[in-house]
Write a structure and sequence with these properties.
Layout: H1 9-14, H2 24-61, H3 70-74, H4 78-94, H5 96-106, H6 108-126, H7 132-146, H8 149-157, H9 166-192, H10 202-224, H11 237-246, H12 262-269, H13 272-301, H14 307-311, H15 314-334, H16 338-357, H17 361-371, H18 374-388, H19 392-406, H20 408-412, H21 426-452
Amino acid sequence: MTQEFTLDSKAVESGERAPQTWTDAEEAAAVRKVDWRILPFLAIIYLMSFLDRANIANARVANKDSKHDMGTELGLTDSQAQLAVSAFFWLYVALEVPSNLMLKRATPRVWISRIMITWGACTMALGAANSPLALILLRLALGAAEAGLFPSAIFYLTFWYRPIELSWRIALFYCTATLSGFVGAIVAYLITMMNGFLGLAGWRWIFILEGLPTVLLGIFCLWYLPSYPETSEFLSDKEREIIVNRLKGYSVNKHDEENFNLKSFIATVTDIRVLSFCVAYVLMVIPLYSFTFCFPTILSLLGYKDLNAQVMNAPLYFCAFLGVLASAWYSDKMRDRSIFALGALAVSFVGYIGLTLFTDPLLRYFSGFLCVWTYVAVGPFLTWLANTNVGSTRAAAATAMVIGCGNIGGIIAPYLYPIADKPLFRSGNIISLVCLALSIAIMFAMRVSFRREGKQI
């Protein structure tokens, strides 16, 4: 049995490197080869996941002026639509930790492929929904299928990179979540032009055509994605030696998928700091998801219909996309994650103040450019989490637990903006403001505590 990953915290804090028999140029070339093999693929996977979980928002407003929109065809009430949105997160939350632990047993290549194939199939099946109940049950199945993807991706990156290299890499695939809002709005509009093709409404084609590529990509993943540096075939012997040995004294050696440390697991899920990360993330995710799911509806009520409602949503997410990349780059340079997470949440807080106070449609729209900065906070926040929870079982459990608990926000978010509160939705905006304020307070207290103890921030 191989031994579990451990972190030499003194080596990390001092920047000490394992003894090397290679040049810096060779190391840079090997890391760059890993980057090109792994990061674009993870980015595409995460883009597809966000498209498939959030496309229900675009499907709801697709072909709204016809008799073939989702609400009319399914007889969907506002409360049933909210239930369908939140249903995704019920099993998604419950299965995050078990799924991430299974990554060790099944290997990353096999487990991530399984996640993709099953969630893509569930997305396609949503195009066949014929009742509100069927829609809700299929969203429930979609959440169960996709559970574990994001924490698995973060955990997976710790197999290949040093802690100080994680923020930028996490951002490179996570930023596609913001890009999905940009891409999804445009793709959804183009797909709705197929309204009536083969007798199917445009909203059904959104689910079918956005789910199919995920299934195909999941099959491709079985061949393409390397599980561990030690067993990778795309690296030469010299490159493999470099990647494996440069991580010694940091976080990774060879993983044993059967190695589960029960004592470490219990210590992790009862750790007050891990629980603090959980609470801060829940409070962050509530406004993030409420904005994702509800802003297209807000735009439609402000007078932007069909094309305008879809496309006007896109620039906001492109702004967040740039913010994610910028914050990750500078947080890696400064080796300070928490300050960037706090700053991004503060920007979002200002945006929600504008969304609450302004009545002018244009001012409300531009407030949205600030609200989406909640997305910018997620990357540095989760890198901070990953860098402060090490060891194979602890890293898997902490990452999945925080992300899983955070997605409870996805259950709550759809209910913050009921149609009855139109057009200003002030109660939902005020709740989002309170959540952001509390998340900022918790994170600031954690930052102060970590600094006093000399831990990573």
